[in-house]
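Field reference: sequence -> structure
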Amino acid sequence: MSLNAALRTATSGLNAAQMGLRAVSDNIANVNTPGYVRKTVEQTPLVVAGQGMGVSVTGTKRITDQYLELASQTAGGEASRWGAYSQYIDTAQGLFGDPTSDNFYFNRLDTLYSGFSAAANDPSSTLLRSQAVANVQDFLNESQRINGQLNSLSDTMDTRISADVSQVNDLLTRINSLNGDIVRAKLIEQDASGAENIQAQLVDQLSGIMGVTVSPHAGGGVDVRSGDGLKLAGDGAVTLTYNSGSGNPGYITATSDGGAPQPLQLDSGEMRGLLDLRNTELPQLSDQLGEFVQGTVDQLNAAHNASSTVPAPNTMTGRSTGLDINSAVSGFTGQTTVALTDSAGVVQRQVVIDFDAMTMSVDGGAATGFSAGSFDTDLNTALGGMGTASFSNGTLKLAGASGLGVAVDEGTSMKAGKAFSHFFGLNDLVRSAGTGAYATGLTGTSDHGFTPGDTITLRLSQPDGKSLQDVTVTVPGSPTMDDLVGALNSPSNGVGLYGSFALDSQGRLSFSGTPPTNAVLSVVSDKTARVGTSISMTQLFGLGAGERSSRASQFKVDSTVAADPGKLAFAHLDLNVAAGAPALRIGDARGALALAESGDVNTQFGAAGGLGTVNMTVARYASEFSGAIARSAADAQSRTDAAESVKTEADARRQSAESVNLDEELVNLTTYQQAFNASARMIQAVKDLFDVLNNII
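Structure field:
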């Protein structure tokens, strides 16, 4: 080997040792720096014309493990998702109160029913009647408070998600910018580990907010993609936007420079947990709360409609059924009796309505036929000037002539699980500002009643909120509910690609998503209105979270009863008394007892929250609902603990692989120092040889 070659070899060794010492120095200096990843120099033999000419330093390399990085980021995303979910579902559970306290929401049922039980012991007591009414209103007020705060929690989710989106946009911009710095450093063979460490920390922050996949970028840095493969950063950062609207699932879109917004699928991260709450869990809680309150109210109203005040009220005005007279009356079975009584409770006229035979009989006389479409007119005729019946805008109204009151014996009448007076809400104790119950009693052959050509726009989304498709359904000209359901389920102009609507035995219209998308439904716009009413399809059938989440806030005690608790219906109409004897008697407490026992009567609850359609008592449903809330909170905490445990383990293993070990670095320091000294001595030896040669010359 020539002296020049020996000098170049020694010099390359000296440079390599210097770079190694610099790397070791950086490692030791940053031993306690969070996020710092130890580095080492990459060396390769320098070969010229087949001969070794020293060492070449190809660059500085961070000691990372791609598998451990992925495991840590995935675990971090899951931990953030369930941490956020658990935090707010625990807050939602807290809205219902402490189960061991008398103020626990579900304990108010006992107070409500015991109030009527006490009043039954002394039905003439104004104080006990007032307390019973106050207990009902207190229950409704508490339901409204909880529902309002659940909706406020949804607003909080919107605020948190918007803040997360803003942070993600900043992180993506910085990650993408660092790609340029890293690529430039590598092109000129400079140390890019500082920029790579910062970028790795930013990626870790990003994966905690939203689930991402990371892969190496050509030339250095990383490419970042969403769970469904959309590139977010690498060759330019996209801009995320949070899209939300009342009653519709919130979802995230990504827009690249000059491109169109594309919906994102989120698999993990804090935003996924917040979206799960906002789109699914909180609306389901509001929906189930509404169904629970509706079931409780239905049984109170059933008992109240089966009873009467003494004397009977002069006028009974029902709720808006949203139906025309033909649809409202069709489908009833059994018999009911409408009676007109004087101030002493003596019956002056009674009309027995037989829905099976479609006849009316006045004061025990011969039965005459009636039709569903002219029911109000036919009943008006049967009352013979002593009372009137009218039907307008979906509402039935009965009134007695001067000095006469109206009372109803429900008898065996039944439609959609409700007796005659109860179905029309003629003597409801609790009124709703909306339609309340969605059991319409309509069947497949019933007229749908909506104006042909009117439209309803529905949105189908994935459970995480990602929009699948908006469809606009046109009300068909063909008249039946089967025709309407067919139009809704059309695969070309309806929801048929992602699920289907079905009408159950009580006239509830519900949507079910089909695998693999398991789509959820929301209402974008509804321009329908049932003929003769202003009630839309959304309101009539409770379609979409927007309609159903407001239901629990719409109930209040009937204004007449609230103003005068003496108007509570505590007596039963007794049609078996002797002629001239009162059919309504002061002191009759059978209605009060029925109200007190209404929580133990089986009722059909529609599908809501985590429960499908079930038939059980109000008290049993309260227990199931309360348990479901507790289980949901406990399950979320369990998932959080499990995710945190996995994250801790993944982070520990990653840190073990990436962090600085002082013992190892001291060994490397000694090695590089010795290599530096050896190269320096070799340079000195070459110098000495050059000096000898010069002296010889």
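Note: The mean pLDDT is 91.
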